[in-house]
Amino acid sequence: MKKFKYIFLLIAISIMGCSNLEEEPVGLLAPESFFTSLDKVETAVNGAYGHMLHRNFMSREMSMSLMLASDMVDLNPNVGNAERVQFNNLGVLADNSNIAVYWPKCYQIIGAANQAIAGAKFVNADAANKNPIIAQAYFARAFVYYHLVRQFGAIPYLDEPVTDVQAGASISKTSAADVYTKIIADLEFAKEWLPNTQASRSRPAKSAASAYLADVYLTLGDYAKAYAEAKDIIDKEGIYNLGLEPDFQDLFDSSKIDASLEPIFVLDFIGQSNGDQGRDYQAAFTGIRNDATYGYGGGWSVEVPSLSVYSTWNGKDYRKAVSLDTTATFRGVVVDYTQFTNTGIGGYGSGDNRPHIAKYTRKAGVAAEGNGRTTNSNYLMMRYSEVLLIAAEALNEITPGTAEADGYVNRVRTRARAGADGSAARTYPANVSGLSQTDFRTMILEERKWEFAFEFKRWYDIARRDLGAQVFGASGLEGAKPNFVAARNYLFPLPANELVRNPNLLPQNTGY
């Protein structure tokens, strides 16, 4: 086997949390010399999960792109960054700088996972001790490829370390169908070998692998398998130590979320950063400019909901109050959203008189850096309420009109009626019962819209259910978006710089 050119894959990535493939090599190290014990395999696994906390993944560039491409998040009209405007207007170009940075970050995560899987072969250990460790690498690889294949379709698929730079630069694309097959295989392995529970839900347990299998099958329209996976988790709720958090607000409270039973897999920002590694940007991007309410110095008012999100969301739904901030504090004065740009009281004159996203600011903890960039937020990648809604959606496609499917939705809605005051007088959202298959399908997508508002899922739902013509039309939350073309906008463009470096990745996705 060829020697690794860089120690970076195991040391620089895993310990320092960053890498640069253009750096001078710091030494030569044969994998059989490094991978001498399972703790070295864990080092590579740690590298994969550490990279997930970099700004170029879900903290900033990818999450921002997914948010702006959806129908629930608008770009502050005074923000002119081309990469952001393109996503918001559905006019993404192949040289979009967001894609240009999060594409390689995804492959760095995948690379670290591949190093762990390959390196484990050099360690003489029983499968019972080795496989639970590399199962985390299989999950990480599947998790990232699942994002990539939904965004780009056919992509390069690497399942082993790249030791030959020239060969790596000439790799071809793998069809989306084959990528999904490989994702499913990775998740199946992870489900078999991961433990029932983990000390931290920033590391996957069996429930995480199973939940993502359910989600993958839902995306593929294999509703029988989606339901089977989700139902298996529900039946093992006690074994997996899962449940719905009684108070929806506590899901976004940094002081309470670690003890919650609802998260299945999270990205856990701990309030510290090494530059852009470990830094939580959502508080800054979604926070109200100059707002003194949370002691962050205010956010940047970049990712802001359209006013229609606020006006169409029933105020009796407790999730609305949790998800949106409608007041800010300027110079000691509390004002409502219609005054956010009132410079006379300290507001920021930027055309953003609208409620802002509260999930990443209200109870995110103390931030060591300005604008909340080092809060203790947990980004909820998968939580138990989603498993319930996957089961309901899939069952409706298999056997419409069941009390079982109604019951899963009603568990989620019961929590949505329970405000912080525990009031039993709340009646909205009402329990569902007796809906036709079509009406249930419409309802469940609306339910997901509100339950997971601003949690980076909406664009994926729009794409998998072909909702673009509806949600980007004149009656959509952001009004008509004339750039929307179904044949183009359900995939993003492959990064132009990658196509220049490797023409084997051609053709470009349709419409770009």
Automatic annotation (TrEMBL):
Any Pfam family: SusD-like_3
Keyword DNA repair: no
Signal peptide: 1-21
Localization (cell): Cell outer membrane
PROSITE patterns found in the cross-reference section: PROKAR_LIPOPROTEIN (PS51257)
InterPro entries reported in the protein's UniProt record: SusD-like_N, SusD_RagB_dom, TPR-like_helical_dom_sf
Keyword terms of this UniProt record: Cell outer membrane, Membrane, Signal
Identification of the protein by name: RagB/SusD family nutrient uptake outer membrane protein
Lineage: Bacteria, Pseudomonadati, Bacteroidota, Flavobacteriia, Flavobacteriales
